[in-house]
Here is the input.
Amino acid sequence: MPAALINVPRKAKRGDVIEIKTLMSHIMETGYRHLASGEVVPRDIITSFSCRYNGTEIFRADLFPAIAANPFITFFTTATESGTFEFDWIGDKGFSETATASIIVE
Amino acid sequence: MRFAGIIAIVALLTAGAVLATEIPPAERRSGYSFMAADTRAMQDDDTANPGMLWVLDGEALWSRKTGGADKACADCHNDARASMKGIAARYPAFDKTLGRPVDLEQRINLCRANHQQAQPLAYESRDLLALTAFVAQQSRGVAIETGSDPQLEPFVAKGRELFMQRQGQLNLGCTNCHDDNWDKHLAGSAITQAQPTGYPIYRLEWQSLGSLQRRLRSCITGIRAQAYDYGAPELVELELYLMSRARGMPVETPAVRP
Here is the structure.
């Protein structure tokens, strides 16, 4: 099932500042909620997100329990060369998702 | 003098209860228009709208074979982009076999039972919300026409009656907020007109997609009345009345609401 929505411009001019938008499907359970029976609902969050542009890391974020479900992370970078963006989300309970997007720089 | 004033107020209150003013067609507004610019931007951008995550899941489910018949939705209905366009804008619709209206979720489950020989999906389960969102999204921009079927008339009337009916410990009917006070605020939040144009919606408060029945149940709990169970005929009649009341307004599914 598709888990992520990525928005990277298909084409850009060299030197352009481009916006990258990512939306990942995740419940982001805080670990602070209790069931009616009193049991704590165990924490289940994404803890780390990173983006590599042609192999070089250009953005990284740590995530914490206060972040809402389905985290939407958006950031800017400079289009330097054609290639691919690789996105990684890592979290509790062995959560690990990747996605890629390509760009043509003219 | 004071006594006369009290009489005037009582008269006003009673008149309000009897003649709950319905919203003229030209003044109808989607919940979208009550939202802050940030939330509107979230709904407008398909890569920022979290409801699209369910739509994508629904698209995958559409072509997945399931049940005893080992059939996918796509095996009968082919491409949803063509076959499902405008469908959600006509729901809830009259079901001849059952002799009553069914909403989109119930239609999907009837289809599963009758044609796929599969177990019904639970209300508010990820799969049912995903399929409903995917089907309804095909009607985005289509004008709502629910309730044009004359067979539905008595059910629309029942739904309207429920909408007007005061109930619960707060003794409020839906109409007291959503017809009479939609231009005001309740605890800082806009009271909207209850136009169900974008269901299932991604509600920020829920951190999830949710159905119109979920929204109705939380509103009923809010007036401290006992909420009807999921799938109850009363909820479907309310959905039917609300959709017929929004006739002509465009479908926004999946909408984002605060």
Observations:
- Chain B has eleven helices and seven strands.
- Confidence is low (pLDDT under 50) at residues 6-19 of chain B.
- The longest strand of chain B covers residues 93-95.
- Chain B touches chain A through 13 residues (CB under 8 Å).
